[in-house]
Amino acid sequence: MSYQSAKDAFAEWGVDTEAAMEALARIPISVHCWQGDDVVGFEGQSGASGGGIQATGNHPGRARTPDELRADLEFAYSMIPGKHRLNLHAFYMDTEETPDRDEIEYRHFAPWVDWAREQGIGLDFNPTFFAHTKADDNLTLSHPDKGIRDFWIEHGKRSREIAAKMGKELGTAAVNNIWVPDGSKDIPVDRMAARQRLEASLDQMLAPAHDAAHLRDAVESKLFGIGVEAMTVGSHEFYLGYAIRKGTLLCLDMGHFHPTENIADKLSSVALSVDELLLHVSRPMRWDSDHVILLDDAIRGMAQELVFADLLGRTHIGLDFFDATISRTAAWVIGVRNMQKALLEALLMPQARLKEAEAALDFTTRFMLTEELKDMPFSTVWAEFCARNERPCGKRLIDELAGYQTRVADRGR
Ligand SMILES: C[C@H](O)[C@H](O)[C@@H](O)C(=O)CO
Ligand SMILES: [Mn+2]
After folding, report:
1. Rounded to the nearest whole angstrom, what is the distance from the C-alpha of residue 181 to the centroid of ligand 2?
2. Coiled-coil intervals in this record (predicted)?
3. Number of domains in the chain
4. 147 in a structural domain
């Protein structure tokens, strides 16, 4: 089908494909650096603690240096329509020095900022509270030992300073997302004490004021991780309350809830109480919270809520998955494009008509519309969007992805 025919078909439904593509072009996705190297980082001083997360697989081509990671990212961005961001973790510093986590400074990340400026992209940031000997108890900010808590508070403060400077340098606020793995393998007897310690540590970490034009802090909850099956200190309820009371962003990771929960359903609820949201778009499967996202109902539902509830202006969309059994660059590219496709589909829906039917309790019309809409030529509009952005689709995309993977395969595993 030609684009003109698709445009006419959507126009019959009262939908303007040009407006939808313009809106999509304005939505940046924060691409997570850690898919490129299986969450290993560049510190070379990791402890045994994986923080309850694990990349599995042994596909060749893992990025082993900042230069390799940047080359992979440049390739990935060249396959993704639009301008996006990079989400950097603190243990991806680029320096010959070996600062411990409580010693990191902006200069250890300056090469990333220079590169981001060249690429014309913004940066987001995350303190790294895992893969370190001082996290081996699976406790950091809530550790009973004050010395360990202080170490991680300092790490968190420095991360915020670094993120704020990144935001200032690049002229776009960096979202600094705080996720700690703290929890208990077996049933604890003093949950309150652990949560009080986490709250007090967060308060200290977040006390230094930074310009909101440079830095936005987010807090991320989790249901459970490997080794912390009985209790996660930073649960959803903990951080929902914290974000509301303290004015931080709330991060919803789609892999951090019970598998039967609908994360899209949470957006409108929490958005009534917090100003801004951060999403970690992910796909949980059994024990894992981080499979590469598909263009499935969960992602479509999320995109539809963002568009229909008018939340795009106050939601930062980040991705969070890591799969080492497939090409890492293909995982990035297909994952980001899936998020964009879901957003485009939502933008191409006759929102007013659907809402009108629902408000009139005309559920038959809502049902007929949503089902018939599924036959609309979304893929033709997506292909047009890719073509206008000089990005390949279909077989050409697959050939490009396979070609790049072949070129990096000799890096070893
Ligand atoms: C590496 C990330 O910080 C991590 O995935 C975190 O966001 C998370 O989701 C942990 O399960
Ligand atoms: Mn996450």
Report:
1. 11
2. none
3. 1
4. yes
With a 6 Å cutoff on the Cβ, whether 124 touches ligand 1 is no
Per annotation, catalytic residue among 108, 210, 256, 316: 256
Does residue 60 fall inside a structural domain? yes
Angle at 104 between CA 44 and CA 324, to 5 degrees: 40
Q: Which residues of the chain have pLDDT under 70?
A: 45-49, 412-413
Instruction: Out of 132, 280, 316, 341, pick the active-site residue.
Output: 280
- For 250-266, the pLDDT digits (tens) are 999 999 999 999 999 99
Domain extent, residue 132, equals 28-351
How far, in Å, CA of 81 to CA of 294, rounded?
17
Catalytic, 265? Answer no
Burial class (CB in 10 A: 0-12, 13-18, 19+), 23: middle
Confidence (pLDDT) at 315: 98
Q: What is the CATH number of the domain that holds 135?
A: 3.20.20.150
What pLDDT score was predicted for residue 52? 86
Q: Which helix (H) or strand (E) holds 184?
A: strand 183-184
Residue 372, domain member (yes or no): no
